[in-house]
Write a structure and sequence with these properties.
heterodimer; A: 724 residues; alpha+beta; 8-stranded mixed beta sheet; 6-stranded mixed beta sheet; 18 helices; B: 366 residues; alpha/beta; binds adenosine-5'-diphosphate; binds magnesium ion
């Protein structure tokens, strides 16, 4: 970009930089500030505390001062000018991983917009923990030089947080700008609320003040977890996502000396064997210098990428929010009767890892039941607020047959109606948008399917929940009837007549005439476990036998601690127990406890059953859906094993002396490839030390397999029974 | 049933209700209470009595739903309460019972209406009267003016003689809730008929115009849907003194129902129709054809009116061709009129012209 035209460039492109209308500009400015704060805190493993304040300036129409402050690391003094004074000075332009800072042109855009619309400078206050005082300065832009114009630079003790305490470390930005702010669906308030849902680890304060110094909107969304998002790893591009232009650029810029190492080191998912096959297919010498490969050769390599079997890219570069946290975030944002969330397993499309998460809130009292549901869209934890209709995330919502799950959907198509909110989050190393404005996700079949499957799952939860609440209310009545009213009738009638009281057991059976399920999940403060108790009461005249299935949170950290009945895992998140036959009038119980969850992580279960007749308060398990889930799990497991085998094969190719064992040097070389991503330890010595079972000083194939699997297989070690 | 029951008979029939429940539970079945269906689909004309009574359709209220089970429990509490009152020779109002039920725990009433309904249920199944149960309504009775003499037993137990023309003010004699012989004696009269009037305004007009004297009648103000005691008093006077009853009401569907409850019995109290209804009553006006004949100011029928009229077309009490004609005519014209519409022709028109003309139709010349 020619530097003289930076402000011109801004003017021309402001619609896709997010500064096209006065309402949108303020959202964009807030977004740039908040995104930076969240990113900086995440990188430095700080639990974010972010305040946003908007002040209308008296007597100046459409003039707003945006003040953002965080408790992040702050910015070292030498970088402040660059960060705020030059466009496109970002810290992450060349890495591939899931980050927020992919939209807009960053915080310099805010300074630019401020200056263009008000002629004023932006005040920045930064404190890093190493220094005793904060540094404050006013920053303007020299648009010709793409550089900062700094004034009033000074040290200050007067950098305080919202409680008036001195700030340890953090950043404050005060930018005046032409803007309009409002309440409602497309507002700063909504943007911040949405942001807090997908950043459950952040506390966000918001306050808007009008020209008379009166607060017109104010809220605080407290963090609901102290768990920071898991650190994301950057990955190399995958060959399936590369186009010819990018390929040529990579070849031209490569410092590698040989094509063999170029392929191995530039891309993810290319094991040694695949590298050889690609070169053979493309008819390119492995010793060729990358920068000397012809455009035809480059094209042949691209073609070969599609015929040779490659490994998928690793998916641990993604940072899903995870369903339990979405649930907490949603419950905190809106009062409602019911929340269901689903995080799908990571998947890959065109070489890009992606992962889909959805949430559904039902029973909101603050919105009318006959309007369209609220749709909350997110890409990489960033709220999408515009262009809802043209967005893939919306299209996936529209494609689900919601009627079957109990939401109204006129004509069986479109966004459903009801007092509900549907949330969709797409995490990906490369979110494709429909336009530069980055407000609507572009069509992609794999992503679409994943979202649809996830939505169908929350839909099923909703349906079960509604059926269960209706049944529960009815059951409650029946219990009140037989436990309280009936004994009172019996007592009163008997005493009036001076007769003996009748035996009520047979009367109760006649009145109930059904099997009832009662379930509860409670938090045991002392033992720090969640206890789930399920009671199946047989109020019919004949004995009943069932297998009972219950939903539980199956996460990395959670595990069963008390489970006398044993049973077995049915599919992910569903456990199954066989109950002894329950005689008429008797009850069967299932009790288990789960350790490793936080207090509010789990508060209710869903109960299913196998067996004849109905159970009020439980649903008959849908074997088809179970089968579908099982198949998905099997495919995923198979894929994982295949992938692992490929990585092992690749590693064993480094056994240059054909000894059948990898020594430390050979293993270290191999770890530059896919096997490196599958091992916990970083150095070959450490791996060998831990997994060298026969003490040979080297690892054989079996030992290596063991090493890759040691942390992936979690044994619950609970009893099993044979198939029914 | 019109005979007062003895204490033992009342307690025995109340205990029968509890026994039905107890017997069922002994058999391992949910307790029940059997009641006649209380709707217009279950009232039948009793030729002997000349009134409408409940037919044979029964519903069994059983304790398989929470709502019905509560009703059964409440009924038992009410029975207990009544038996206690009988034992201690006390009485209470329905409203008092509603408040007393606060102490009944699970058996307490949710609304006053519930307590009224249970009292009625028990009247029906036991074939006793509310009075037998020592339960009084709060509804107050009507006002009456005319040359009739009665005796009312006052609070001190003395019999007080009252002439309802000479011993009362302009508002007339107020009927007590209990008009049975133990409370009211009919002594003497000098009238030709009894005229029941729906609205207070018309009652006052007739009083002011001295119609009771000029037409030699007793005027009774119904106050809308007449209370039990009003209907009972009309019946006693009509039967004891052999006087015809003329009902003078608005011309709308609700007025027709008022008439039906006086003449044939109300659906809610069909179990005691023979005790409350006066089959010889006549609907004097205002009739649908009066609106046309006298060219009276009228209002349009509301959708609710139309609905009510249509319901009356299938009500057995309006099955006569006369009534069917009147109702159909109203539906065709789409009009209704108030008694006071007669004022169109001056304040005296009703007493000088309308009523004499109408009464003459029924052979009552003034
Ligand atoms: N609030 C902040 N705290 C710490 N560092 C920040 C903050 N805001 C911005 N930075 C630094 O400035 C860089 C540039 O920010 P920006 O212009 O918004 O681009 P981007 O967010 O795309 O990297 C960031 O990458 C980060 O290193
Ligand atoms: Mg940024």
């Amino acid at each position: 970009m020619k530097q003289a035209s930076i402000s011109e460039f801004f003017e021309k492109n402001k619609h896709f930089l997010g500064y096209d209308t006065l309402q949108r500009s303020i959202i964009t400015a807030v977004k740039e500030a908040v995104d930076n704060s969240l990113d900086a805190c995440e990188e430095h493993r700080i639990l974010p505390d972010i305040s946003i304040e908007l002040r209308k300036v008296p007597k100046k129409p459409d003039r707003v001062i945006m003040i953002s402050q965080d408790n992040g690391p702050g910015i070292p003094s030498k970088s402040i000018e660059k960060v705020f004074g030059s466009l496109l000075f970002g810290s992450r332009f060349h890495t591939i991983r899931q980050t927020r800072g992919q939209q807009g042109i960053g915080i310099t855009g805010v300074v630019m917009y401020s200056q263009l619309t008000t002629g004023k400078t932006t005040r920045v206050t930064s404190k890093i923990s190493k220094e005793a005082t904060a540094l404050q300065m006013d920053i303007g832009l020299d648009t010709k030089k793409n550089a900062a114009l700094v004034s009033n630079r000074e040290r200050t003790h007067d950098f305080l947080d919202h409680e008036g305490m001195p700030v340890e470390h953090g950043l404050k930005v005060e930018a005046p700008m032409k803007a309009k702010f409002q309440r409602g669906r497309k507002s700063v308030g909504q943007y911040l609320r949405m942001t807090s849902i997908v950043n459950p680890h952040a506390t966000i304060r918001y306050r808007a003040i009008d020209e008379n110094q009166e607060i017109i909107e104010e809220f605080v969304t407290e963090r609901v977890t102290d768990r920071l998002p898991r650190p994301v790893r950057s990955i190399k591009p995958h060959p399936h996502g590369i186009e010819i232009g990018a390929m040529n650029r990579l070849l031209r810029d490569s410092t590698e000396k040989r094509m063999s190492s170029f392929l191995r080191h530039t891309f993810s998912g290319v094991p040694m064997r695949a590298m050889k096959e690609v070169l053979a297919h493309a008819d390119v010498e492995s010793a060729a210098k990358p920068s000397e490969v012809t455009p035809e050769g480059a094209q042949r390599i691209l073609n070969a990428f599609n015929t040779v079997r490659l490994m998928p890219p690793p998916t641990d570069c993604l940072s899903p929010i995870e369903d339990l946290l979405i649930k907490k975030g949603l419950s905190k944002a809106v009062d409602s009767a019911f929340v269901a969330t689903v995080t799908r397993a990571p998947n890959v499309s065109l070489g890009n890892p992606f992962q889909v998460e959805v949430g559904l809130i039902f029973g909101r009292e603050d919105i009318p039941a006959d309007g369209a549901v609220d749709v909350l869209r997110f890409a990489n934890r960033v709220p999408l607020m515009y262009q809802q209709g043209g967005c893939l995330l919306t299209k996936a919502i529209e494609a689900v047959a919601w009627k079957g799950y109990g939401l109204e959907q006129p004509g069986g198509k479109g966004v459903p109606k009801g007092a509900a909110t549907i949330l969709v989050h797409l995490a990906s190393t490369n979110v494709q948008f429909t336009s530069e404005a980055k407000e609507a996700v572009a069509d992609n079949e794999e992503v679409f399917n994943e979202i649809r499957l996830a939505l169908q799952e929350v839909g099923r939860h909703l349906k079960n929940h509604r059926k269960k609440s209706a049944q529960k209310a009815k059951a409650q009545e029946k219990f009140e009837l037989v436990n309280e009213i009936l004994p009172a009738i019996s007592e009163k009638a008997s005493s009036l007549l001076g007769r003996e009281e009748p035996d009520l057991a047979p009367v109760i059976t006649r009145i109930m005439n059904a099997v009832f399920c009662e379930d509860e999940v409670i938090w045991d403060k002392e033992a720090k476990v969640h206890r789930c108790r399920i009671k199946i009461h047989n109020y019919t005249a004949r004995p009943r036998a069932y297998s009972i299935l219950a939903q539980y949170p199956e996460t990395d950290s959670a595990h069963f601690v008390e489970n006398d009945l044993g049973g077995r895992r049915e599919v992910k998140g569903i456990w199954c127990w066989k109950l002894d036959t329950i005689a008429p009038g008797d009850a069967g119980y299932i009790e288990f406890a789960i350790q490793g969850l936080e207090h509010n992580d789990w508060n209710s279960t869903e109960v299913f059953f196998r067996g004849s007749g109905d159970i009020i308060g439980a649903s008959k398990i849908d074997e088809e859906i179970l089968e579908q889930i099982r198949t998905e799990e099997e495919i995923a497991a198979k894929k994982a094993i295949e992938e692992n085998n490929l990585a092992i094969d690749d590693a064993m190719d480094y056994d240059t002396d054909n000894s059948g064992d990898l020594d430390a040097v050979e293993l270290q070389n191999a770890m530059a490839g896919p096997i490196g991503e599958k091992l916990e330890q970083n150095s070959a010595e450490q791996v060998i030390a831990k997994h060298d079972v026969d003490n040979s000083g080297t690892l054989d194939r079996e030992e290596l397999i063991d090493a890759t699997q040691s942390d992936t297989s979690r044994q619950t070690g609970l009893g099993e029974w044979g198939d029914e | 049933m019109s005979e007062a029951k003895s204490r033992e008979e009342v307690i025995e029939s109340l205990n029968q209700v509890a026994a039905e429940m107890h017997d069922k539970m002994l058999k391992g079945e949910p307790p029940t209470m059997t009641l006649p269906v209380r709707s217009k689909t279950n009232i039948e004309f009793n030729k002997k009595l000349g009134v409408y009574k409940y037919g044979k359709k029964q519903t069994i209220r059983d304790a398989t739903s929470l709502g019905s089970a509560r009703q059964l429990l409440r009924a038992l509490h009410v029975i207990d309460f009544i038996e206690e009152m009988i034992d201690t020779a006390k009485s209470s109002t329905l409203r008092e019972m509603y408040y007393i039920s606060e102490a009944w725990g699970l058996g307490k009433f949710g609304t006053q209406n519930e307590s009224n309904n249970i009292a009625e249920d028990l009247e029906i199944v036991t074939r006793c009267m509310r009075e037998d149960f020592k339960l009084r309504p709060e509804e107050d009775g009507a006002r009456m003016i005319g040359n009739v003499t009665i005796e009312e037993r006052n609070r001190r137990g003395d019999w007080m003689r009252i002439n309802c023309r000479d011993d009362v003010g302009d508002s007339g004699y107020g009927l007590p809730y209990n008009v049975e012989p133990e409370k009211i004696r009919l002594i003497d009269e000098d009238i030709d008929f009894i005229m029941a009037i729906e609205t207070g305004g018309m009652f006052d007009r007739l009083v002011e115009n001295g119609f009771d004297e000029s037409a030699r009648c007793a005027l009774i103000h119904l106050k809308g849907q007449p209370a039990r005691s009003t209907r009972r008093m009309i019946k006693r006077m009509s039967e004891t003194w052999k006087k015809p009853v003329m009902v003078f009401a608005d011309c709308d569907p609700w007025s027709f129902r008022i008439f039906a409850s006086i003449a044939y019995g109300a659906i809610k109290t069909a179990h005691i129709s023979e005790y409350l209804a006066t089959p010889s009553s006549t609907y004097l006006g205002i009739t649908a054809d009066d609106i046309l004949a006298y060219d009276l100011p009228s209002d349009k029928l509301t959708p609710k009116d139309v609905e009510a009229l249509k319901a009356e077309l299938t009500d057995p009490r309006f099955a006569t061709s006369e009534w069917q004609g009147q109702i159909q005519m109203m539906l065709d014209e789409g009009k209704k009129a108030e008694q006071q519409a007669l004022a169109k022709y001056g304040l005296d028109f009703v007493t000088d012209t309308y009523l004499p003309e109408k009464l003459a139709e029924f052979g009552l010349s003034i």
